[in-house]
Amino acid sequence: MAAKITRDILEGYLHCKFKGHLKLTSEQGIKSDYEALLTERRAEIRHAAIDKILARHAGKEMPTNIRLTTSALKQGALFLFDVVLEDDLVSLAYDGLTRVDGPSNLGDFHYIPMLFYEGNHVRKEQKLLLELYGLFLSRLQGRSPDTGIVWHRKVCNITRVRLNTDKREIERLAGDLQNVLRVEGLPKLVLNEHCRVCEFKKRCHAQAVQEDNISLLGGLGEKELTKYSKKGIFTVTQLAYTFRPRRRRKKRHNIIHLRNHSLQAMAIRDKKTYVTGTLELPASSLNVYLDVEGLPDSSLYYLIGVYLCDASTDKYIHFWADSEAEEAIAWQGFLDLIDALGTFTLFHYGSYESRFISSMGKKYGIPSSLREKLDASCINALAKLYAHVYAPVYSNGLKSVATLLGFKWSAEDASGVQSIAWRSEWERTRSQAIKDKLISYNQEDCKALRIVTDNLYSIACNTLASGSRIGSVIQAEDLKREHPYGFGRHEFFFPELALINKCAYFDYQRERIYVRTSRAVKDSVRREKRRRREVRINKTISCPLPHKCELCLSGAVMKHGRISKVVYDMKLFIGGIKRWVVRYTSWRCLCKTCGKSFVPISYQSRSASKYGHTLLAWSIYRNIELRQSHGAITHELTEVFGYEFSFDIAARLKATASRYYDSTYANLVQRLRNGNLIHADETKVSIKGFEGYVWAFTNLQEVIYIYSETRDGNTPCEALVGFSGVLVSDFYAAYDAINCIQQKCLIHLIRDMNDDLFKNPFDEEVKTLARDFTTTLTPIIDTIDRHGLQKYHLNKHRVPAQRFLEMVSTRVFTSPLAKSYQRRFNKNREKLFVFLEHDGVPWNNNNAEHAIKRFAFLRKVIGGSSTAKGIKEYLVLLSVCETLRLKGLSVLGFLISGAVDIDTFAVTCKT
């Protein structure tokens, strides 16, 4: 006969499916002192809560230790304690039930479940436990309870928890529980946060190490584990082989360092330490190491440990608090110690000590000067380790890292949760031995922090001793980056082989070998290095001299040396274009009255640039509109027009044109902000190994492109400041920060749904949801095809659309994919059918996608060799050219005309 599900099994399952199955098979673990403490506290809270209830409702009948049946509930007792529900599947012990008003099969009342919980905060596990209790209770009383009650904390706080009354959802959870717990064999082992307090901790960890389980890596959440499992990655070794070195990036400010789990796995596999980025630590004559012990249930910090280390000092100081009354004394002692120190650096491990300083400062106060001193000196060693160092350990906890470095704690079971159990035992016994154990544990934590910090200094200074326990230290950026197509230079065992290989390169052999053996090659190389050709002057223009001095307006002006300048340009005529070179000549002038020398304004204005405006317009047209590279443009200027310009001529002309059309770009930005509709989209761009982003904002007439280094919401918010129309965008959350009416692109939603249907063809819930969405959208699209985007004709579809959204919101889904779409519809329900309420608002974001596509074409020409400044110049010019295309105007005509206002140019074209 199969074992019944008890509360112990149920709680284990809610924390970990693997633990629930172990409990079901009656496997016994080794309970820690902390678990025993939690059990003891639950009993204390139970007795205290029952005493409160009895005192409040003296004389009321409150049965205990009875079997839970419908007849027992019909007795109508105000409270029931320690009742047991028995059937073929479960044997659940309820902490208690309380009667509340409301009709049920019992009469005009029903019962809601109660829990006695030892923790401070009610978590998801307690809510699920109450919902399952409510499910079994509803089968007896004919009504699901709306709420549950949790008694928790030492002072017996009461928290009312709103329960999910949809029986289908809760019954599905109960069904999953039965299937998981009844299945033959153990479920998949996945380590999680509960493992640190679990009785099966050592057993599961040993099994995980044997399996090389990927969940051994600290920081991997459920989503990441699911993602890796879908890729067939289940072990740490498998994950290690997915690491790919990246290009070394230039130093950038405000970089968010994300943990690279594949690099961590490779460090474990290779037993080496990898370093990313630049590890910087402040140099200080005195280092202070801080470790604080506290109690989470009472917010009491009872032990502050400080370890002082410099050239002559190696001293541990602690401040102990017997109770909350002495906490302020310990805090003041710590402040006095810090205030007496000169210049120092204070190290701590993790955010616990930062929260300690913040909360104690708010609770007892701290002088502003001392607070500034602490803020300036505090260094979180864990943050430095997390951002830059990948040691061969599964977790970045202080115990793991310090143990790797050879440090050992005197107590074998030393840990943060164990210290809570020790403190509880001390409060009960006031044993000096327990107090000494806590102080010793705190001192050892400080010493361990010192060892970790010293190694960080060694890594930062590249002075790690050979034979270190952390293995050889390697800069991750120095790892060989393999080209995706196998290109790159070979590494040779012998230097002589490298020299031989070098002599086989094409350029080397052509310029050093073949020129000596082939007359044809020699002539071709000589032609490639020919002298620059002189270009013929097509026209010479003599600029007139001024009659008066431009400075003092005196008429005594005389010639003072001849000047001239050649302007390289092009001349456009019907049927073609040709090279056009103009020489401007004039005289430098000297004023006899004021003695100042000056150049005539007529000469300055005509010869301000070495390159004419038509040449600039032609280069921009070829680069932006026809998407020719700078190299191709330079080559064409040489081969077709005979110009011998430097290789960067096209880039310099682009920069000049960008400055010239800055006012045009600013006018486009303002017109978009003043409009009633904007489409928005963004895409990635690579700049010398960095990832940047290009945003496109457009209506039906104007387009602007904006570059940003990040993809956060600041860029669209700044670009659209003052916009009060309708924004059409995809589902990227950054657009939600813009304060305006929004329409989400339904095409994006349809594409995602269609892809998921092909990937999950047997998910009936998703198929039903997609079919209902299609049924709702089809008549809307038919109306748009007939009458356009007019509110008058689309208004009739608002009720069916709202009916569909209500249906999605209230339906209970069991498929994870269907649930994700339900959350997506609920989150964006006010932004999916906005186009039904406005004139001219489309239901898709194709205009922005088209604008992004135009940049994507140009991106292929740019490649990854441009700079941030160069990209911004490209985007100004692309904004102008793309706006001209949307307005049906000639891009080349506008560029050659010299105009900067597009609307004025459009009027000129009409006339």
Q: Kindly, what is the distance between the CA atoms of the first and last residues, rounded to a whole number of angstroms?
A: 96 Å
How many structural domains does the protein architecture include? 6
What Rg is obtained from the alpha carbons, in whole angstroms?
38 Å
By secondary-structure content and strand pairing, the structural class works out as alpha/beta
- Which fold name corresponds to the CATH topology of the largest domain? Nucleotidyltransferase, domain 5
Binned, the helix content reads: 40-55%
Using the coordinates above, name the CATH class of the largest domain: Alpha Beta
CATH architecture of the largest domain: 2-Layer Sandwich
Number of helices, where a helix is a run of at least 4 consecutive DSSP H or I residues: 35
Strand order of the largest sheet: 1-2-3-4-5
Any idea what the CATH superfamily of the largest domain is called?
Ribonuclease H-like superfamily/Ribonuclease H
- Count the strands? 22
Percent range for β-strand residues: 15-25%
Major sheet summary line: 5 strands, mixed
Residue-averaged pLDDT, rounded? 85
Q: What is the overall shape? A: globular
> Are there runs of 5+ residues with pLDDT below 50, and where?
483-487
Describe this structure in words.
- The structure is a single chain.
- The protein is built from 35 helices and 22 strands.
- Residues 483-487 have low confidence and may be disordered.
- Helix 16 runs antiparallel to helix 17 and helix 22 (613-625) runs antiparallel to helix 34 (891-897).
- By secondary structure, the chain is α/β, with parallel strands linked by helices.
- The strands form 5 sheets. It has a 5-stranded mixed sheet.
- The chain folds into 6 domains: 7-182, no CATH class; 207-275, no CATH class; 287-471, Ribonuclease H-like superfamily/Ribonuclease H (Nucleotidyltransferase, domain 5, 2-Layer Sandwich); 539-610, no CATH class; 645-742 and 846-908, 2-Layer Sandwich (Nucleotidyltransferase, domain 5); 746-830, no CATH class.
- The longest helix is centred in the middle third of the chain and has 30 residues, at 432-461.
